[in-house]
């Protein structure tokens, strides 16, 4: 119980750190963000720009001290002139900031709420990442076990070399090559842009699957390399340990030795890697979604960076951080489920 | 991973590393890639190593400019004299005006000097050619002396000087087709070398020295000697070639072709194309060893327009390709081994130059990550207490972001602020990669330091009463290096991949300075297949060699035989 409490406290502190990083990121934007953003507006747009500038300043309390700006950004109370009555506001908009689930709006498209936009984008990125992770595990675990059991064989050597190759290949380059080779300019096997054809019905699963093949392949191939590497090392280590020898000596059937003794124990470190694989997939989604023009969170972050929608960028960074923390929690949980030593230590 | 102390593992580690299959090949590949990047300015440039030529264009310009310059000089002189007369001790504005006028006058004198020395260098060495120059220069010197001394009263001879410059223009006219006029002297210049910066010389010599010493398995003392020699040579070369080459014509090949450079002999690098040398008539040409790259003399593709243009896009009007001196023939396979991009720049030259940025960022970032990670981790593990707590909290926060995501956003958002602080984009990307990436190594090293600090030899040192700083530097730090060394190659890989990815997205090393990632960004924009292949393949090759070595190093540093 104490463990749990300490853990959640630490998680809260880390979350606060995440918000601080996002806030610093926003302040990294050059000069007074408002000024710079609207400096380039020409005379025709000057009126609209001035209005947006005023809104921007009011929303971000740019003339207030930094800690007030941070608290305002964090929420859950809006500290602005229309904010909560306790903090000198008019009370028209008492809640705001991240803790109130408010990520702000885009500047150039004020009717777009970042939070809802991001939610829509996540409904594309998260399934993609999950399918890629599942695929990577489904391929890498058997591969790693096989390599670990047949260490030093030709199969082991070749697949390890292949894994190093996959590890070293820049994902955007592989994506470009696949687009060129399998897209309309090459063999014309698969669609290479977007997630659905222009003329496809909304529930067309086959069309969706065809569009998702290349992005998922690009997202998962590097993870296959890292996971299989881990699985190979773990399998090799477990297979040469004393309890496996003892099990064989007791006459436990080879099938049972493999599944109950070797694989089950070797799985733990590989499963724990979920905590590293998921953030890698989210980070890689910026590249893959940009190359394949998939309207997910990565593409949103890229577009926002190009349009200087820094609030949206900070929101993406924050969400990716929360997803990473979730991945780490998931890996802790799985480890505890799989490994009785960890489970009992927690009690 | 069970890790032994470095002092015990390192001696045998190198031999174990070398013994791995493919390790020598990986080392060779890495050395080749690094060499091509370091020597890129020597390998691919539009400017020759040496050139024996008359810069006729520069000579004529200088000769023509002398007279107007001297007239302008006269005007400045009158202004300066007037300002001096108006000078009053108690009026700061008049003092300022006099100072400005004086400075303008000196600038003019310097400009005249420069033209005069160029004319003097090219004009024939015969007496009759040099005498009027001498006279002019003598009077100029006298005048400069007067300017310096502040005696500006006599204004008459300045107009006279301008008149003699006009005479000079007649008498020193360069020889033209009819054979009349002055015969000019050939000058030997080193256009390529005089373009190089000090650090480029230094990198080239240091790398050469390192290769030689590595091949000869030299001891540490010769490494120091080699470093000193490299420093000396670099200083010497940059001092010798830094002197103005006297070649005003930047485009040597074009100068030779148009006759602005009266050329006797030149020695061009093997790839006689600059990284930014655009040639629109040859744009989007496939690699020249491919049949589809064949051009006819009117600049059209012999095998018809490419698919891209056949699809209804407007094909750019073909114009004849001019083959400049020193370049391979129009349809020679060696002309553009890797094709040209949408602006007609040679891809091979750009890829060579691009490696400089990519490898520099990758290796520097890896060094930074290792340095900061080892130091922070070792200190945190050794000191424990508040520093450890702060460090671990920072690591926890930074590690709860997808690292690449953070690198991209920080690099992009901070780019303008970095630019306004005069930080080069290349340096900025390196800094961001280091700032985000040091945490992994720090965690590894911290765990190791926590273990080492409880070992007997550390306790013994403490019992002997050694100061903490000495215990840390002499006993702890060297012994926590092993995990960092084992991970070094992988750190370099992730740094290189991060740089190329950031540049690919357009937030890293900015064009026109090529890096492999930035080249791929261009390739994506222009949709020409041969642009995609080369830069990515080089990233892959470099990272693969590094990964192979890293794998071998990890095993070599792990003393357990059973692997």
Sum this structure up briefly.
Chain A has 347 residues and is an all-alpha fold.
Query: What is the average per-residue confidence, as pLDDT of chain B, rounded to a whole number?
Result: 83
Distance between the termini of chain A: 7 Å
Ranges of chain A with pLDDT <50 over ≥5 residues?
Answer: none
Helix-strand string of chain B? HHHEHHHHEHHHHEHHHHHHHHHH
In one word, what is the shape of chain B? globular
What is the alpha-carbon Rg of chain B in Å? Answer: 31 Å
Uncertain residue segments of chain B? 307-312
Task: Please give a structural write-up.
The complex is a heterodimer of chains A (347) and B (563). In chain A, helix 5 (114-149) crosses helix 8 and helix 7 packs across helix 11 (274-292). Chain A is built from 14 helices and no strands. Chain A has helices spanning 2-28, 33-39, 46-60, 66-74, 114-149, 154-168, 171-182, 205-239, 242-250, 254-272, 274-292, 297-307, 310-338, 340-346. The model of chain A has no long low-confidence stretch (mean pLDDT 81). Chain A is flat. Chain A is mainly alpha-helical. With 563 residues, chain B is mainly alpha-helical. Chain B has helices at residues 6-19, 23-38, 40-43, 56-85, 92-122, 127-149, 156-171, 191-195, 198-216, 220-242, 252-258, 307-310, 347-383, 385-399, 403-420, 425-452, 456-463, 468-476, 481-505, 516-526, 529-557; strands at residues 50-55, 187-189, 261-267. Chain B has a three-stranded antiparallel β-sheet. The longest helix of chain B is centred in the middle third of the chain and has 37 residues, at 347-383. The radius of gyration of chain B is 31 Å and the shape is globular. Chain B starts with 5 loop residues before the first helix and ends in a 6-residue tail after the last helix. The model of chain B is unreliable at 307-312 (pLDDT under 50). The chains are: A mainly alpha (347), B mainly alpha (563). Chains A and B meet through helix 1, helix 6, helix 7, helix 11 and helix 12 of A and helix 14, helix 15, helix 19, helix 20 and helix 21 of B.
